[in-house]
Amino acid sequence: MSPACLAPLMLAGLLVGCATPSLTLLPSEEGKQGAVAVIEENGVARETVVSELNSRTNLSGRPRTRSVDPKLSARQRALLDTLPPPPVRLTLYFREGTTQLTSESEPGLDFLKKEIAGRPGAEVQVTGYTDTLGSDEDNDRLSQRRAEEVLAALADQGLDRDMMSAVGRGERELRVRTDDGVREPANRRVVVTVR
Amino acid sequence: MKPAMMVMLGTALIAQSAMAAEIGRIKRSMGTASVERGKAKLAPVPGFQLQSGDRLVTGRDGQMSLTFIDDTRFSVGPNSSIAVDQFDYNRTTQAGNFVTRVNRGSLAVVSGQIAKSKQDAMKVRTPTSLLGVRGTRFIVEVPK
């Protein structure tokens, strides 16, 4: 295509991009594939899956997807730059039957304090997990209680109670995959998420 | 007051406080920006706790960034009006439903656990369309 043809085409693309609602699909921060589906358009149900990364799709009229790479507008770049940083997670291990951190987990506390200080308006989730010994319901309760104990311990260490909440996830998301009914210290853990 | 009525009132209060649970927090706001809750216009200071039904409104120089308790992150651009119509999330199972309406302006999204929980558990509505989020980073723009 000659350069003379490109200009009007680009202009047309810009006009479409500006005049109607649009979706711009980007790779995840890890560069991974994702997708967004247009499931309804002007009141009509449809299923147009947009999976082309770095693309723009108009959201009025028949959805059409165009490549935008690498031409994000300054406004779009500003929008991406002001996204909050991804949450950080830290796994803590405790001395058997206590809320005292193992010596390996002790430096974690300073790490948490630093992360919280660097994130104005931080929110902290303390998530308890169990191994697969015992029933699902018991493990949900046990992990919740564990998370609450750790939350209290973190509050004693100077973390603001108002920014923290406790969640029990029981034996979901095992760190070490085991059969049901298996003792596994690596699965009995607490993960602290700072958002 | 009759005891039966008191019980009902108590139940209503509990239901209300459960509904008013925190769904996320404001991290940053610049320029003209507010969180509208019913008829109230609230200042989005860092740490402000969001609730389901809140509307994020910015002026010409406004911007807001926020995180949700399912790890979803938003950045709201200038001249925007964005409503969090629904945010139901079970923190134990990490399943839920999340509906955001972009009435005007621009919104950048990094989706979180709700979008992963089942197909189209996270939706974004614009004046002309409904989107099902299948886990990614994207921008929705609704010009005036």
Automatic annotation (TrEMBL), chain B:
Keyword field = Signal
* Keyword Signal (UniProt): yes
Residues of the signal sequence?
A: 1-20
Ranges where the FecR protein domain occurs:
54-141
Tell me which PANTHER family the record gives: FECR PROTEIN DOMAIN-CONTAINING PROTEIN, LIPL45-RELATED LIPOPROTEIN-RELATED
**Can you name this protein?**
FecR protein domain-containing protein
Which species is this record about?
Rhizorhabdus dicambivorans
What is the phylogenetic placement of the source species in the record?
A: Bacteria, Pseudomonadati, Pseudomonadota, Alphaproteobacteria, Sphingomonadales
